[in-house]
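User: Sequence recovery, please. Input:
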């Protein structure tokens, strides 16, 4: 893997190259040196993922109960509506708490991967590199599910209205905190949660904001950019090598790599001043779009909802609607048309 960064030093305008980096993302494991940090960050950033995704998948809207409570605001109807939205409120608190953990711990991961010699960092920290990829995979899936749950905001808005009326609170009473202070704390948290879920892709926005702040604070735009290009190239080459193999042996890793590839392009587009789409970009957008269009993974043994996460339409829509520089004048027309046509 010593050729990693040299492989990224592409000649200006050499848009046909996708560097082969020799990084085996599929089989990467943490070394003894990184194991302690890996276990800590994995427990905070990766292990909560399946439970949070399950909460979203099993979310039940409270639209009917809220509608009845608004149309006929009797104590009985309001109690039914409250009981219906309470599980959603608990879920959103867990999700928001996770986003705060992300803010606290993602910079630690970026520091290991991006400070100093990025090539040596990746050689020494392959487990942490894969952990970052797993984080992007979770974020892609989370936001996909969130966008398919438009009633979340309506449910939470009803909770906030009831909270502001002082009718309900499901927080345990702290005898050392006054009722007014407790109400202020709960209302402040509700405001933050409301702002968080207002975005169509809240987790992606969260990781973009954290990464931009990290880049600006540490002046590591080039190093973080190199890392994201390395991740993009690794995912692209993994998909390309497995395109002619059967699903049973490649489906999961291909789907994983496609989501991570798209997320890494979006992140790069936000942290690089020129973005990911301009002529001399080290990321080959045309190759990326074409491989997504031709390698849509399907698995007849899973539900349609599971397959939806990584269809070409969803992957390319994420790229189209979450990019920063796609519509810039510097973006070649053929690249812009290719992405926008999807």
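Assistant: Recovered sequence (342 residues):
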């Amino acid at each position: 893997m010593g050729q990693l960064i040299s492989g990224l030093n592409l000649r200006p305008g050499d848009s046909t190259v996708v560097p082969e980096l020799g990084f085996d993302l599929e089989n990467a494991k943490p070394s003894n040196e990184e194991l302690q940090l890996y276990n800590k960050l994995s427990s905070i950033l990766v292990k909560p993922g399946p439970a949070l995704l399950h909460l979203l998948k099993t979310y039940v809207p409270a639209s009917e109960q809220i509608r009845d409570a608004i149309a006929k605001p009797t104590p009985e109807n309001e109690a039914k509506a409250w009981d219906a939205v309470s599980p959603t409120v608990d879920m959103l608190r867990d999700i928001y708490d996770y986003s705060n953990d992300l803010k606290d711990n993602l910079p630690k991961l970026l520091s290991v991967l991006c400070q100093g010699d990025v090539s040596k960092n990746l050689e020494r920290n392959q487990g942490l590199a894969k952990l970052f990829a797993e984080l992007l995979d979770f974020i892609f899936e989370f936001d996909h599910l969130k966008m398919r749950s438009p009633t979340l905001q309506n449910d939470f808005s009803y909770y906030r209205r009831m909270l502001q009326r002082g009718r309900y609170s499901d927080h345990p009473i702290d005898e050392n905190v006054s009722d007014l202070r407790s109400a202020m704390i709960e209302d402040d948290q509700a405001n933050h949660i409301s702002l968080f879920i207002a975005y169509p892709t809240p987790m992606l926005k969260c990781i973009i904001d954290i990464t931009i702040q990290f880049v600006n604070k540490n002046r590591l735009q080039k190093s973080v950019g190199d890392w994201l290009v390395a991740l993009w190239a690794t995912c692209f080459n993994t998909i390309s090598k497995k395109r002619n193999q059967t699903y049973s042996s490649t489906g999961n890793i291909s789907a994983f790599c496609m989501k991570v590839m798209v997320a890494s392009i979006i992140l790069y587009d936000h942290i690089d001043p020129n973005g990911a789409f301009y002529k001399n970009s080290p990321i080959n957008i045309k190759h990326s779009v074409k491989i997504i269009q031709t390698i849509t993974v399907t698995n007849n043994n899973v539900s349609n909802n599971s397959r939806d996460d990584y269809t070409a339409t969803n992957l390319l829509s994420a790229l189209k609607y979450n990019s920063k520089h796609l519509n810039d004048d510097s973006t070649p027309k053929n690249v812009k048309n290719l992405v926008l046509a999807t």
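The first helix runs from residue 4 to 8.
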